[in-house]
Fold these 4 entries.
Entry 1:
Amino acid sequence: MILPINIYSDDILRQKATPLKGVDSGIKELIKSMFDSMHNASGIGLAAPQIGHSIRLLVLDISCIAKYASELPMVVINPHILAVKGSNEMEEGCLSIPGVQGDVLRPASITLKYRDANFVEQTGEFSGMLARVLQHEIDHLDGTLFVDRMEKRDRRKVQQELAALSSGNVKADYPVVAREQIAAIQG
Ligand code: ZN
């Protein structure tokens, strides 16, 4: 099922998400919907808070990028970054911040402990695009967005776009929960 994606300035994107205690049929269904929603929006990563669930769960699939065509999709639950190495700058975007891109400096590789889709503990070392997407999505679980990590000068250049998103002026070719809809639900 394709779920609408929460947009910049939505409170849920600023919350620290809660760890999962296990994977039941509801979570399995949610994981499937997260992949559907991510693929529908041509995204390569999606964190549960972006579809309205403040839990420590993310999915990613970078196989649509030709260079990474053989990379398998990943389900990551309760991730902990154990170690980082090096650093590099890469341009990022986010399904919750449509139309905005910017360079972000991050560690180049990470050692990650997490639970997989069967809630089995895994430890792995990730570099390149996988390390990049994992760190971006793990940030979502802590209420951090990539624009928070942009250099001030670069951030000023996208300030107008961010203000437009905050006021509910969202142009995306996938379903979103924009500000006035939230007001309608709450009101
Ligand atoms: Zn994002």
Note: The helical segments are 25-40, 128-141, 152-157, 159-166, 179-186.
Entry 2:
Amino acid sequence: MKGIVVKAYNSYYYVQAENGREVPCRLRGKFKKGRFSLLVGDHVVFQDVPEDGSGVIEEILPRRNCLIRPPVANVDQVVLVFAATNPAPSPVLIDRFLVLCEHAGFSPLLCFNKVDEPDIEQDLQPLYDLYARQVGYRVFTLSAQSGYGLEALMECLQGRITAFAGPSGVGKSTLLNRLYPGFSLETGGLSRKISRGRHTTRFAMLLPLEDQSGYVVDTPGFSQTEFAQIGERELESCFPELQPYIGQCRFNGCLHLAEPDCAVKQAVEDGAIAVCRYESYQQIIGQIREAKKGY
Ligand code: GDP
Ligand code: ZN
């Protein structure tokens, strides 16, 4: 039978079978020899052990991608959470998170939480226009506190494995608790910091949606941005709106910085690419170079 690993605990892997049944499974001995590690999110083939209702994992199907922290395989999309206010959203920070998602192959959904706070609507409009209209991401405005906008987000979770990510304090845990009322992550304050220490070291869990059509990772993913894994030549591929101009520059391998006759810089000048996005691109190239120098 085929299934997906939703939880790992006490040397059992809990596999949700295609028929919805959750089966505690052990790994066949042959997998334990190498340095291989089975992750939550992995698709496996297992055999029932009728005597005690458990199973044995016989085969691990190819993995499409994996998130390191928390360790989860086959993530389809990342809900990037920012706050409309407190902390105020910074386009540079948003771009840094978007780049990490794009580079890891997770399609990002961008959320602005806390829209229940007074006096924020005006500030969000330019961000919405930039990311939704100009760049083409899906952007949601919502309030984990009041429930506003959650249904639209829920619809996008159907049939997929979704992880949440974003800086701290934006409401990721509140949002997860809201989506899964049965589940409680501590939010805010000192207790949160303590629980987080433990949280990041343990395995993540996949929470099945009510209709079993998709899963959400219970532990928020990257909360900081680090670019050591990204090559400077790869960066252009992490900006969707740069794609029409790639290969149009005078020089092969143009990094779109100081090179003459650069199609990307021309597009920025013409207003087809937002100046702030191009500035983020330049800034991140700088950070990639610093990371490589070993700072
Ligand atoms: P995390 O660090 O991203 O997991 O953020 P938390 O979920 O711990 O939330 C940080 C703070 O923001 C807490 O004090 C929450 O009560 C508050 N918060 C979360 N969601 C909302 C919201 O929709 N509206 C408002 N006004 N506050 C929120
Ligand atoms: Zn160029």
Note: The longest helix spans residues 275-293.
Entry 3:
Amino acid sequence: MKRILVTGALGQIGSELVARLRQDYGADNVIETDIHAPTQTSDSPTGGSGPFELLDVTDGQRMAELVDKHQVDTIIHLAALLSVTAEKNPLLAWNLNMGGLMNALEVARQFGCQVFYPSSIAAFGPLTPRFQTPQDTIQRPTTMYGINKVAGELLCDYYFRKYGVDARGVRFPGLISHKTPPGGGTTDYAVEIYYEAVRTGRYVCPIAKGTYMDMMYMEDAITAVIDLMEADGSRLKHRNAFNISAMSVDPEMIRSAIQTWIPTFEMAYEVDSEKQSIADSWPDAIDSSAAHEEWGFRARYNLDATTREMIVHLRKKFAVI
Ligand code: AKB
């Protein structure tokens, strides 16, 4: 990776990834793109430190022009609707999630770029083994987002086999971060819970107790993207997409981790049936051993370390002593 274009760069992953890429590869070598411009009030940590371009990823011509203009060699394609939003508008999700990826792969083919594509634990479904979910297993998701993710994994493999496009990806778990909030995902509760614990000391959880999902602290996720993209391609047997996880947790586990910092924290449940049925269709705990063996993936933050980072940073962000 030398000249990197990031789509959806103002989102939860993009805003932190761009900051790290700019540190490692040079600010001018990382082109931030999004469908809307950063606002004055946006707390995007990258705020104006390098090139920014407006890009609607369904506009393949504009994507090609930007790749050409900035002599890009790597496309990190993050723009997508997440699971809950996609379920509310499946047609839009198909057009954006699949159309955007198709454009990224076509542009990559045309300009010889490497591509990163984020798949998700959503690429699994109710028929998938729930525990130690293998790298290669049954994938019959029941959500539009999950269908997009499986199709995306297959498309990336197809472009690699047919055209030699060096497309690589991971199946992200829920990502926990304190800089830019996520939006429209099933795992968003695992971020909201920390915000509300610090801001108000109470949280009403939309996901039922005993619902286990894989999660990861953002810093581990960012490191995983860079390590995979920089890995020796000849070692990769699975390109799209590697299972990666740092922890499998339910809301009660996060509650008690928070209570070690904020003993008065209170949590109630008001289960959201749509979110719950999506969560119930996903695995409890995936097996990340292929990522470990093929490119050395290892998460550094477990639940306690994640909780410490979240509480310390959110206390600073909201000036809570
Ligand atoms: C979501 O909840 O939709 C995402 C994901 C796990 O892909 N965070």
Note: The chain has eleven helices and 14 strands.
Entry 4:
Amino acid sequence: MITADLFAAALAPVRQDESLCEGAMVLRGFALASEAALLQALDVIVAQAPFRHLVTPGGFRMSVAMTNAGPLGWVSDRRGYRYDPIDPDSGKPWPSMPAAFLRLAAEAAAYAGFAGFVPDACLINRYEAGTRLSLHQDRDEHDLGQPIVSVSLGIPAVFLFGGLQRSDRAQRVPLAHGDVVVWGGPARLRYHGVLPLKPNHHDVLGDCRINLTFRRAS
Ligand code: MD3
Ligand code: FE
């Protein structure tokens, strides 16, 4: 039935894996199969290390709220940016990296061509309507040959993917609940950010977006 197939093809959501550039791959919906395990693990982390707004070295309060899981956590304060094994708010180690987090990050990295990825840090960002993340590079990690895996949950966002120079023109990439992106190789040091979120609602996460970024920091 040619016509039925044509209708099916026209109506099906055309959301396939896409390569943004060499080293950057969007895996649409890759996290959906582990959604329940991820959200359960997230609740455990947030109970031990609540979201908080960090201050940049320049003294500005970040609009993104953050927490971490794993042996190392990313922190910012008046002294600078760094990875630290201790949560400065609790004085205790960050919550441990959930097995479901490790598995998803390793599977996504392997799928994108980075076999053997074992993250030691998961930075967790929470966005609400109006929250943005200005263009930056992630260069506080020791081995820039290791990729970063990001997982988007909750309300959608528009991700900005720039070049190696802050002034390079940025592409806009919509990211939805369950999308996973793997950034490595020549994409690893590209400038990136998130446009201010539009007010929205997600049935499971409510009025926010949560982004997990898995890193090999040490
Ligand atoms: C491209 N987070 O935490 S994830 C960050 O949606 C961060 O919360 C954003 O940028 C967020 O540092 C974007 C996507 C991402 C993460 C790291 C990258 C893209 C990247 C590193 C290099 C190039
Ligand atoms: Fe980043």
Note: The radius of gyration is 17 Å.
